[in-house]
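Table S2 (continued). Query chain:
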Amino acid sequence: MSFFIPDRKRKRQDDPVKSSKKQKKKEEEDSLDSDAIPSDDERSPDDSQSADAEDAETADEKRIRYARQYLTRLRQTASGDSEQDDEEAVETRIRSDTWESTAAGRKGFRPLAEQLIAASVDPSKLSIVRVKGHQLPVTAVRISEDEKFVYSASKDCSIVKWEVPTGKKIATYKGGRNKPELGGHTDQILALALSSDGKYLASGGMDKQIRVWDTELDKCVDTFTKHKDAVSGLAFRIGSHELYSCGFDRRLTLWSCDEMTYIDTLYGHEANITCIDVLTREIAVTGSEDKDLRVWKIVDQQCLVYKGPKSSVDCVAMVNEDHFVSGGQDGSIQIWYSGKRRPECIIPEAHGPATDGTVPWISSIAAARYSDLIASGSSTGEIKLWKIDAGWRSAREILKIPMAGFINSLQFSRSASYLIVGVGQEHRFGRWSRIKQAKNSVCIIPLPIKR
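Corresponding output:
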């Protein structure tokens, strides 16, 4: 049975009410058009005067205004050595954004895995940068959209900001067990999320809090406290400052980091929620210890249930708006289509057969957005890269990278030219096993993929 129960203390006032399927389809098409040129202004409240001015605009004038704002933001983030370099950076970003916003980009593949296959990569010759700045296992990593910075979180309650590709430490967001005076987390951090414009970093963990950090000032600017148990997953919707969080309290919660306010809470899972992902639309995917995955269509107030493996779902990643991948404690990887309740493809024992009666868990998974390339990590200390075939019915291993320790977090950079890895001596959720020879570290792996 599917449940989608909004919080009775609902604060969101602008939920659209749809009167027919035809109207829903039209509004969905409209949302695709607006995603082509993301604008912070689209999410911020306007006063009556600016609202009247916007109402007076024609459709063409509004598109031109949004396009100018978009180009201004791109030029502000460009930092080449010359004006020509800046324009090339802007042109590259526009091509990437256009691909992701089109139907072809959403439903098709960027053939990134083919580039790796053609390069015949030798894992022993990869120039991996390993950095150590945490005392305890690394639990989460995130890389900025411009591929300049990596953020890592740990069970030691701290967050470290690193430079790419050198691995130089830029800043540390301090925290400590039962040390609120440090201004950070007071218990283990389990999750990170970085907004697509790089402005806000969100972190959550065992202290039941979500902290929002200004990445330019490198300081905490707000704290959210709605969760009643550990915060296990965080994700920003692409092109916005809308934050999604999930936790061991079985809640999916929505926040606005523009207004630094709570929006809504949704219920459905019957056990701890372990992971979450979201792309451009107001659609989130979650996995849980109840062995199910759920797709939450926020605007339509729908929650779809997908029957997962026979054990906890520990990680999930959206490939595009219609497909996602998951992994869990039964050692399998599943490829899903949102229109079907059963997996399109199951890769059993993806990281090898059982040893000592235990199948290697899938502890992390990542997808290069809108492409045929995914990566998985396991408790055996190895990373595998996979190529998803065009029909979504199969995937094959194309590269294996050995790495001692629990692979607790994986993320591809926007261009997929980097794979960021969070490694720990322990699993991010527990201490039931420990690999003494492992190093608690962050690894920056360059991949031979063209930007």
